[in-house]
Fold this sequence. Notes:
Blueprint: E1 2-7, E2 10-13, E3 18-26, E4 33-39, E5 46-51, E6 58-60, E7 68-73, E8 78-83, E9 92-99, E10 113-114, E11 118-123
Parallel strand pairs: 2-11
Antiparallel strand pairs: 1-3, 3-8, 4-5, 4-9, 5-6, 7-8, 9-10, 9-11
Amino acid sequence: QVQLVESGGGLVQAGGSLTLSCAASGRAFSSYAMGWFRQAPGKEREFVARISRNGGSTAYSDSVRGRFTISRDNAKNMVYLRMNNLKLEDTAVYYCAGVATLLGPIAAGGYDYWGQGTQVTVSL
């Protein structure tokens, strides 16, 4: 089992950057594939990025590819989401999620563990 806590959200102007962090506690963090999801008001939770348990494979949604970068440090039990060139439509609560497999799915339902979320607000 793993517990997840996100941090790093905040208010940023369009075109700016933020780095979200997700701290994992529990055993065998390197056994978990990790993902980032987001949920805007009135919308369903959507896939943003995922990373394999050894960090060797990543994938992104079309809306963030080329702007966001997911990474992990298994020695520190951390997952990161670097967000560049932020747009108004990136405003949402961002969640990290984990599942004990090599590479997690893009469906939120495929993840067993979730953090509480961190708010990202992009303004003009």
